[in-house]
Amino acid sequence: MKIILAGPYPKGTKEKFQKLLAGCKFLEAQTQEEYDALSEGDVIVVRVLKTPEKTLENKPSLKAVIRWGAGYDSVDIQAAGKRGIPVATTPGANAYAVSELAVALMLSIGRNLMENAGKTREGIWDNKIFSSRMTTLNHKIVGIIGGGNIGRSVARQVQSFGARTVYYDISRLSLETEAAYSMEYADFDTLLAQSDVVTLHIPLLEGTRHIIGREELSKMKPGAILINTARGGLVDDNALAEAVLNGHLLGAGLDCVENENLSESPFKNLEHVILTPHMGGTCTDLADEMIPRIAAQIRMLMEKGTLQFVVNQAYITN
Length: 318
Known about the structure:
This protein is an alpha/beta fold.
């Protein structure tokens, strides 16, 4: 079986796959151009790069696409389904890494970490400059939009800082799961109004685009913090920039933005916003969690012809 590793991967990824999947041939494509040009491959394991219909068209032997991670908005799942190709994800494998970054951003915004560090580098040793803006997570309400693996991991972590957690999801968790993670369900507007921190952990779909827009931002608690480590497009960037600039929000921590051309970004020179380059799932040790799970999926496909965590079953035609 020929397996395409599409995207930039941590060092040693190919070798680790080879140990787990002896006999398979691995083809590497680190750029979108290399990926699009490959015409052979039975399975695609894709990270970062996009998989539109044109990328699928010239791979006649393709049997499956597996995403390195839980998101799948970068894959045309309908086009894949039309060709009888299942698209599977790897949910939960990067949950701790992404949630850890979300919490780090909460703490950094709350303590004005970037601004304080900047002043110190300028030679100004003064802990009172931003003292009126600094706050902790202790006794705060963290509102989690999305009750999946990452959202639940965030809940566990912020509770260790003394925070109370509420969540909203279109599919409410079972009462047992809510109790296990000490997560209280709230409707969307109530969560926005009550939360000192709002953090997003949902996929980007047509129905979730700009789920946080100007109206939703106005409903948020004055002085609240917004965190997005999920997908750019969930938040209206321009509306968020206005909410921070006019002081309605204390700040925002963003691992993803709608427009990645930073020369045009409303956040380019905006204080109290931390931007990171969608690095939540980029950790060298994460590969040790991800690779065995994906290898197990490929073995299942080879032995049984099936996959777990298929997200386009409704579109598959045989």
